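Figure 6 in text form: structure in, sequence out.
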């Protein structure tokens, strides 16, 4: 049960550090002073990673209160950790690796923001990037709703259910994890949907996908810069 919270903590620290460094380095200008750093920072995929980690936490809590739950063995814990880390880190890495398919420029630099990714709106942009945040968010909501339903239905036996499903999980820790995942989802779901809508609105017109056309922008304007905090 620790793998989900660990993944969440790693993403929070990593993305906060990334945003802080970007804001400090490009606080007053848009000089391309660290191109390798920009290549790395635009490929982190932290927005999806955090939602994926919360999804794993919500899934774990739902499994604990499930009527099919049994005491977890060491092998069960290893399988769960493998699944959680694969979803929390592997999926975002794959998603951002696919960014090259619809990437309009190598990267962009915005004053006060730093390095950011660019994109052209097409079906790969929707399928390979934009839908995954809402998918993990909605999945986490369903797991959380199931957890709440089971707790309300079996509130008198709550402590016994938690203890029987996972010997290392106390009632207090279960409640803290539930509060963490549900509170983040209350914020993450509307934000992920808003982010998708904003991405679609600011990406300009929809393009029929063409690898040659999408890659041609790399030759004309590989680095995009803007004195504003949004892409032109």
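Output sequence:
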């Amino acid at each position: 049960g620790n793998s989900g919270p660990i993944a969440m903590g790693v993403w929070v620290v990593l993305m906060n550090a990334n945003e802080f460094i970007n804001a400090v380095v490009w606080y007053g200008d848009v000089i391309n002073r660290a191109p390798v750093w920009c290549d790395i920072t635009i490929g982190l995929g932290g927005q999806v990673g955090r939602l994926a980690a919360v999804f794993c936490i919500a899934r774990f809590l739902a499994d604990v209160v499930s009527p099919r739950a049994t005491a977890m063995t060491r092998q069960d814990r290893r399988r769960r950790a493998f699944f959680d880390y694969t979803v929390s880190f592997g999926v975002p890495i794959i998603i951002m690796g696919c960014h090259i398919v619809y990437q309009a420029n190598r990267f962009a630099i915005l004053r006060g923001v730093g390095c950011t990714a660019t994109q052209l709106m097409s079906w790969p942009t929707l399928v390979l990037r934009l839908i995954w945040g809402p998918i993990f968010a909605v999945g986490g909501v369903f797991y959380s709703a199931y957890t709440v339903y089971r707790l309300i239905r079996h509130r008198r036996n709550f402590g016994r259910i938690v203890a029987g499903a996972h010997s290392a999980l106390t009632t207090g820790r279960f409640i803290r994890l539930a509060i963490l995942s549900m509170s983040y989802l209350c914020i993450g779901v509307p934000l992920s949907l808003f982010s998708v809508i904003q991405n679609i609105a600011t990406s300009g017109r929809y393009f029929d996908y063409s690898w040659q056309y999408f890659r041609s922008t790399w030759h004309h304007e590989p680095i995009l810069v803007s004195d504003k905090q949004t892409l032109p």
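Caption detail: Residues 3-201 form one domain.
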